Amino acid sequence: MSTKSVAGIRPPRITDGIVVFGDPDADTVAQIRRCAAPPETAGAVLCADAHKGYSMPIGGVVAYRGLTSPSGVGFDIGCGNKAVRTNLKVADIRRDLPKLMDRVFKEISFGIGRKNPRPIDHAVFEDPRWNVHAGVRALKDLAYQQLGTVGGGNHYVDLLEEPATGDLWVAVHFGSRGFGHKTATGFLNLAKGKPFDAPAGGESMDHPPTLLRLDTELGQAYHQAMQLAGRYAYAGRDVVVEQVLRILGAQATLSVHNHHNFAWEEEHNGEKVIVVRKGATPCHPGQMSFIGGSMGDISVVVRGKDSPVARVALFSTVHGAGRIMSRTQAAGKVRRVKGKLVRFGGLISMEDVVRQMKALGIELRGGGPDEAPGVYRKLQEVLNAHVDTFEILHVLKPIGVAMAPLDEYDPYKD
Fold this sequence. Notes:
The chain is α+β, with helices and mostly antiparallel strands. The protein has helices at about 25-35, 70-75, 90-95, 95-105, 135, 140-145, 175-190, 215-250, 310, 325-330, 350-360, 380-385; strands spanning about 15, 20, 40-50, 60-65, 65-70, 80-90, 155-160, 165-175, 210-215, 250-260, 260-270, 270-280, 280, 290, 300-305, 315-320, 335, 340-345, 365, 390-405. The protein has a single domain, classed as tRNA-splicing ligase RtcB. It is built from twelve helices and 20 strands.
């Protein structure tokens, strides 16, 4: 494997059999090393946006022979992005942008446990995999109520401009909502011998990886439930994008849609494996993928390449810029004082965020210091670290960002 360094970014290296892009911290490397320790491991990758996650790093990729990993896929099964190019130019909507963003923020549900005020019938609810386990079947009503809601945390609806063409794009980022979170929790419980619906334990970020054999009843049940949650996440993103297009009075002329929290059945080096990607984007030769930056940074549409470095990367790349400041560091801690939630500390204020976004000419609705541009790396830096694994087709800049407000806590964020 060889590739050149770009803009001072070190080329990928192999450490203990793990392909490492960028310059992750020691804790993140230790996490992926634990995930890659089993003898069934066929390969492991740490992407340049990697940081510590629950059990497995965000930005981590592991290929297993005959195993899947509920802890590796994580709690937001099927979290991902959908981006569409519209038939409009930004100039067509520039004057109305504030009102359009007001409508997006009002008409789409953001935040904790939010339900769609107009529940949607969808073919996903006829999927036979709802019957894979009684615990999954019991979540169907929650899934029905939440289809088409975005949630909180780093989940968003963006309007973007492609400066090269003036084209208007829509992009969304979220996953399988409460259904996926409770499904993941249920199978992690079952793996410990607990009931599916037992309360979620307050487990350490350093919890050992939970691995299930695919030739067992439990492993197969999880794999099918995960696939169902992935289909549900796709459906939710489809619904929200269509809603935004209706608000804009626009049509889609190009669509890019991908998960980045999932386990795929793939073939690498002539071997059939399960590739678990947690906060990592599949980037196979010819495959188009959307990668979002922070609320104030560029996003890109890329197309995967076939190259030596792409192959050792298991055809995987970053899913975003990568967090470099924790939510608590950025926004402080919340305490209840006289019945009200009061925020203490934090390196970034909401006033700072509003000021910065205004200076960038971006209409912001919701959001908070924990999602400020400064808490993430610059997207171009992490893209540079993955040179020769993809080509950039479209560079997009945000003009409108809608997210849940800071104090809208959401247990289903990724």
